[in-house]
Write a structure and sequence with these properties.
S-adenosyl-L-methionine, alpha+beta, S-adenosylmethionine:tRNA ribosyltransferase-isomerase activity, EC 2.4.99.17, 2 domains, single chain, QueA-like, QueA, Thrombin, subunit H, QueA_sf, 7 helices, ten-stranded mixed sheet
Length: 384
Amino acid sequence: MQQDLEQLNFNPTSTDGEKYCDLDRSTAGYDYDLPEELIAQNPAVPRDSSKLLVVNSTSKNNISSPLHHIFRDLPDILRPGDLLIMNDTKVLSARLHGRKSTGAKLEVLLLEEREQNCWLALVKPGKRFKIGSQIFFEAPGFDGKLTATVIDSDKATGGRVLKFDVPSAQSLVQLLDTFGEVPLPPYITQSQASDEQYQTVYANTPGAVAAPTAGLHFTPELLDTLEKKGINRAFITLHVGVGTFRPVEVEDVTTHTMHSEWIEVPPATVEKIKATQQKGGRIIAVGTTVVRALEGAAAETGEIREFCGKTNLFIYPGFKWRVIEGLITNFHLPRSSLLMLVSALIGRKNLLNIYKEAINEKYRFYSFGDAMLILPEKEKSCSS
């Protein structure tokens, strides 16, 4: 069942009595200037050589000076007994190039599968692309053509619903690596990155059209080191949609309608979270997608539970946290829902000040950029 939780579990004041000002609820309060040269066009090589800005917060009114590290330092920053929650979604080769019956070229970006081989997609150019129109795709080494027919339109996205005619006993997903390519975000315009570099090393469940970018910094060697140090991990799945890049277009944040994304929080992950909490360990989300999945799964009952379905949970300052205590995240676009989510954890003013320092220190921003680790406000000690 799709959740409708935008106004659920929000408080006008924080637990330490901090009142939220008008700018916390105004999109204008989440604006900042970023030099274009700091928008990362290629990933760090190796992945864990990216910068890591560590924020140790004691309260939303008193954030200690950020500490500058390299991402591979993570095992020495976290503590035995901590639990990292990761998103194992895998990015689809969701960008396809085709032609109309007239021969005119088209670009198709798949957004989500509505039913078997029927996909909501953005078609460019597509303003006059009416129901019944066809698109033809070709690929080297593939015997024949792949065809899609427009069967509906979607007002919310401006997209089209395409029904793909695929060979019997096959699905479009099985053909995407043949016909498509992994789509990079629109602000990455001069990249030499391979498709593999826009996947996490633990990507396992196909379905996303964008990567959970906080996870791009991990290498197999770093995961091994974390495990040897007693820092555990578990997984959720959230299939990241194109809506994650879109700015909040309303001025009043509280009136924004969040896009929906499919999530799964499995029983094994719930068990690990509860066991970690009982022992005094810290729950640290790797990325905002993990935050949405865990808090979305916990919002209705007040505690973490297994969940499979869609969530449109929108997190902004005043949100009452149920599960996560720390966060690993990249640096996000101005006026984005992701910036508002991180502000809900450490405060909008604090976050913007931290971004100023990151800019001054030439951190790289967005999907292929550097990372930030926000540690819990209150120290905890693990029991034996």
